[in-house]
Amino acid sequence: MVGAIVVGADDQKLGEGFHTYDGVKHAEAIALEQAGAAARGATLYVSLEPCSHEGRTPACADAVVAAGIRRVVCPTEDLSPRVSGSGFERLRTSGIEVVIAEELGEEARRLNEAFTHHAQTGKPFVTLKTAATLDGKIAAPDDNTGWITSEKARAHVQQVRHNHDAILTGIGTVLADDCLLTDRSGLPRRKPLLRVVVDSLLRLPLESKLVESFNGDLIVASTSSAVPRRLEALQARGVPVMMFDDPRGRVDLRALMGWLGEQEVLSLMIEAGSKLNWAALDNRVVDKTLIYYAPKILGGADSLPLAGGVGRRSRSGAMRLHNLRTFMVGQDEFAVEAYLVHDADRGLS
């Protein structure tokens, strides 16, 4: 997600552009084409370091040099291995002043966090999303009809879904809700939202909405413990079933993330129940949490927390998050976004 603006000496906008994958051309190239000869001596404002290599398009850094741009203002470098500062270096060696707008760095990095994460790790950037009461409950023990959050909050979730390549849930959620897991934002997509169901024993009903709506956009992650006839039945419907065994007979979530990364899934959102939420957190596959809070309290030991399982047995062992951000999504409703502090074995900071 990149935008660029060419500005003249009198602060006049000479050209602008933003990159879309289908449009092929990068933001800088579009803005420079609009500016034409007037770009010489102008300033280029761009939200991400210009690329320095030739891929589907020529290197943008070379185009900036050829256009005669005098100064480039940018908040962040492109952290993908193919660029990682080399675009800025190309500009500087050509005599172009490069100004790093650090005050906008975090905002700019958020725009491309999935792209950067996939480029560095080969795995999708994973957001765990849930809706909870103020006391952190996501489900009542007896009756779960209705919604925890408002219609406005649920519409916001659809926008978040739209921004992801894939969505993942567990078989428990499917059996309880018979969910579709589709992108209902109404916005155009480059490719369909991939729906992923974690189902160790292949209990997914053939009459479920997920299976009945299958159009090449669903995969089931299972294990070798699955009943063969259920496997055959799903495959007969054309639904792909992938086996990811862990030593405990459950779906190996880390292996699943690795496979999804190989399929060019850059971003994945988890919308699941308490048990799978904890498994994802405990297996350290979650990069960010997004929790919508409603002005309600359920209470009770039997109401499900947003993350169940065995949990951490001491306060000192609690998972840590940082870069927390809160925002209102409706009357008396708010969301909290925060990033997991990755430990050393993931090779991330």
Structural features, described:
There is one protein chain. The chain is an alpha/beta fold. Helices cover 26% and strands 24% of the residues. The protein has eleven helices and 16 strands. The chain has helices spanning 27-35, 60-67, 86-93, 105-111, 113-121, 151-162, 171-177, 209-212, 228-236, 253-262, 274-282, and strands spanning 3-7, 13-18, 43-46, 71-74, 97-100, 125-133, 137-139, 166-170, 194-198, 218-222, 241-243, 267-270, 288-294, 304-305, 321-330, 333-340. The strands form three sheets. A nine-stranded mixed β-sheet has the order 11-10-9-8-12-6-13-16-15, sandwiched between helices. A five-stranded mixed β-sheet has the order 2-1-3-4-5, covered by helices on one side. Helix 2 (60-67) packs parallel to helix 3. The chain is elongated and about 70 Å long. The two termini are 23 Å apart. Residues 344-349 have low confidence and may be disordered.
